[in-house]
Amino acid sequence: MASMNGDDAPEECLFLRVQAENNSTLKGIKNILFKIRKNSTLINLMEAYCERSGLDVGAVKFLFNNHTITDLDTPASLKMENNDTIKVLSKRIVCKLCKQSSCLELQPNDSSNI
């Protein structure tokens, strides 16, 4: 594939590891290594991770260096390097007033608690 600057050099790719945060409710969800172009948006990676892990994209958030990754972010825009790690956290709704346990737990393929 030709690069954006007009020459025929291949676009640089990275390997990025996506893993569930250990202290989240996503324990047991697998870690996956992805190969991605530096200028590709990360939405495809996020959707692929969720599909392979049996999660709903809307039920989790992806973080890199404490920055929430958006659909339009790219590895280049976030200054990612080869073998960097993206963390996955469940979007837990913490109800400080009622403290219902049902607000806190989220299981794979279960978005009914959000």
TrEMBL record:
It comes from Macrosiphum euphorbiae (potato aphid). This is Ubiquitin-like domain-containing protein. Residues 14-92 form the Ubiquitin-like domain. InterPro entries: Rad60/SUMO-like_dom, Ubiquitin-like_dom, Ubiquitin-like_domsf. It comes from the Eukaryota. Gene3D superfamilies: Phosphatidylinositol 3-kinase Catalytic Subunit, Chain A, domain 1. Belongs to the ubiquitin family. SUMO subfamily. Pfam families: Rad60-SLD (PF11976).
